[in-house]
Amino acid sequence: MTFPLLGRHNDRLKLLRSLAKGSGREASGCFAAEGLRVIRELLSSPLRVRLLLCEAQAGGEELELAHLAVRRGAEVFFADSQLLEQLSSAKTSQGLLAVAEIPKYTWDEVLSCPRVLVLEGIQDPGNVGTLLRSGRAFGFGGALCLGGADPFNARAVRSSAGAAFVMPLMRLSEPADIEACFGRMRSAGLALVTAAAHGGTPLTQAVFPGRAALLLGAEVRGVSRMASSVASLEVTIPLQGSCESLNVAVAGSLLMYEMGRTPRSEAV
Amino acid sequence: MTFPLLGRHNDRLKLLRSLAKGSGREASGCFAAEGLRVIRELLSSPLRVRLLLCEAQAGGEELELAHLAVRRGAEVFFADSQLLEQLSSAKTSQGLLAVAEIPKYTWDEVLSCPRVLVLEGIQDPGNVGTLLRSGRAFGFGGALCLGGADPFNARAVRSSAGAAFVMPLMRLSEPADIEACFGRMRSAGLALVTAAAHGGTPLTQAVFPGRAALLLGAEVRGVSRMASSVASLEVTIPLQGSCESLNVAVAGSLLMYEMGRTPRSEAV
Predict the structure, then answer these.
(1) Are A246 and B134 a contacting pair at CB < 8 A?
(2) CA-to-CA distance for B176 and B140, rounded, in angstroms?
(3) Of A9, A210, A252, B233, which residue is most buried, by most CB within 10 angstroms?
(4) Cα separation of A54 and A95, whole Å?
(5) All residues at 6 or more sequence positions from A46 whose CB lies less than 8 Å from its CB, including other chains
(6) Would you call B240 and A137 a contact, using CB atoms and an 8 Å cutoff?
(7) What is the predicted pLDDT for the residue at A268?
(8) Which residue in B263, B265, B268, B256 sits closest to B139, CA to CA?
(9) Among partner residues B162, B166, B253, which is closest to A250 by beta-carbon distance?
(10) Under CATH, what is the fold of the domain B107-260?
(11) Among the listed residues B19, B22, B35, the one whose alpha carbon sits nearest the alpha carbon of residue B145
């Protein structure tokens, strides 16, 4: 099987280029994903893949994924390596580029799991993606992004290693929606746990509620006053000596690891 | 107090520009550090700071650090914001740029602590820096970089949040030196612990030796055969469901957290 070669004036390129920006992703409801491993994850996820570009000189593994994409209903094109290089958000293109639809979840889907991750204004897309990846690994079944970097930004998608494709997640950017989500978590029976650099319950002594949302604050500013005021537990990771803080993706992952192994059969 | 304005033809600019590359850092034995927080850490570390550029319109905090740099024996210049923008490795310059000497440590200094971090071919400078930052936070008193990204690369320095300034660390790039370092660790009484994505002792059941070096392998390739063959313990972090792996900086930080809280008074 062979695929048509994508010409330089094809109108799909306009869509592809628009996905580098948040406004473009919002307008089309789509995002771009790159590279063998990420696209393998994408094609085994429930997301709808619309388009796949495959380098014309690609090897067996890339072609296998291209065929899988056809069976999943995607349009597939060959593209020359220069074009892929231009379209890539990474330093070097990895020979495969896909466009998929940003999934939409209900509040029930996002908040039903006993462990939910809440990212409040995390600015670095790499941190957002890494936190989703760790959340998936430690049994967090939903995620909320309150402002901050878009989890469907190219770097966030890469860092999430597929987690953004399978975890029910929602991004809120309006202040009123963000405020309302704290009430929704409470109604869903989720206690709010926040991470504090200093002064919280030491992680080694913390007892986590049976159903809990872990909220991580922005890299430098930390947890907002609003979140602090409704938190039922504030946890601090004990650090040694003169060390001030951990990277937020590391701190959050550590907390999720500990919360993930807490028996979750406790009273809700 | 005021400082001379650095002209566009000053020969210090040649040095500064050379530090963006590994070869330039090697030739001069210096590295560059940027930003308020990182430079505050630098000036409170034992490293020798040679040069500090401060934005001409800088505020009180920047000027305070500039005066501290003078007392620490550094040359200090004002520089205009455009020049700082050009010299910065970050997207936006942060108004302060320093040049300091790369520290040289003895084997004894690097290997004397009961917890040592070994990074084997970690390619991403952000991961290297983040791992050093976590190592410092969890009581790891020395670090070895076997190939991989340079811990004095600008992005690694930024991610390490000052850890690279205070942790005795050594970077080896020659294969013979790398091979020999395993014998040095053994002689220093350090047992080698490696992280494996699958099949190792589950982290929840691992008993860590009193003196141990934690070796983390490259992002995709994992631990080398040589390291595997001399490891006395291979640990795996249990992950849920379909999740394949964690980010290496997250996985390494989690292992360091667990190793850091193991009582280290055990038999050596």
Answers:
(1) yes
(2) 25
(3) A252
(4) 6
(5) A103, A165, A166
(6) yes
(7) 35
(8) B256
(9) B253
(10) Alpha/beta knot (3.40.1280)
(11) B22
Query: What is the rounded CA–CA span in Å between residue A106 and residue B114?
Result: 50
Which of B65, B99, B59, B64 lies closest to B81 in space, CA to CA? B59
CATH 3.30.1330.30, chain A: domain bounds: 12-101
DSSP string, chain B: ---PBPPTT-THHHHHHHTTSHHHHHHHTEEEEESHHHHHHHHTSSSPEEEEEEETT--HHHHHHHHHHHHTT-EEEEE-HHHHHHH-SSSS--SEEEEEEPP---HHHHH-SSEEEEEES---HHHHHHHHHHHHHTT--EEEEESSS-TTSHHHHHHHTTHHHHS-EEEE-SHHHHHHHHHHHHHTTPEEEEE-SSSSEEGGG----SSEEEEE-BTTTBS-HHHHHH-SEEEE----TT-----HHHHHHHHHHHHHHS-TTS--
Give B-chain residues touching A250 at CB under 8 angstroms.
130, 133-134, 249-250, 253
CB contact under 8 A, A130 and B161: no
Whether A138 sits inside 8 A of B250 (CB atoms) is no
Q: Extract the tokens encoding A91.
A: 């330093």
Name the minimum distance, in Å, from the CA of B199 to any CA of chain A: 16
**What is this structure's pTM?**
0.93
Q: What angle do CA A155, B134, A156 make, to 5 degrees?
A: 10
- ipTM of predicted assembly, 2 dp: 0.91
Domain A12-101 CATH assignment equals 3.30.1330.30: yes
What are the residues of chain B with a beta carbon less than 8 Å away from any beta carbon of chain A?
126, 130, 133-134, 136-139, 159, 161-163, 166, 204, 237, 239-247, 249-250, 253-254, 257, 260-261
Which chain B residues are closer than 8 Å to A246 by Cβ? 133-134, 137, 253
Three-state DSSP class for A241? coil
Query: Which residue ranges does chain B devote to CATH 3.40.1280.10?
Result: 107-260
Q: How near does any CA of chain A get to the CA of B86, in Å?
A: 20
Yes or no, beta carbons of A204 and B239 under 8 Å apart: no
Q: What are phi and psi of B126, to 5 degrees?
A: -60, -40
Residue by residue, pLDDT tens for chain A (268 residues) are 689 999 888 889 999 999 999 999 999 999 999 988 899 999 999 999 999 999 988 888 899 999 999 999 999 999 998 888 888 887 777 789 999 999 999 999 999 999 999 999 999 999 999 999 999 999 999 999 999 999 999 999 999 999 999 999 999 999 999 999 999 999 999 999 999 988 999 998 999 999 999 999 998 888 999 999 999 999 999 998 777 789 999 999 999 999 987 654 443 3
Which chain A residue has the Cα nearest residue B254?
A254
Distance from CA of B176 to the nearest CA of A (A): 31
In this prediction, residue B172 has a pLDDT band, given cuts at 50, 70 and 90, of very high
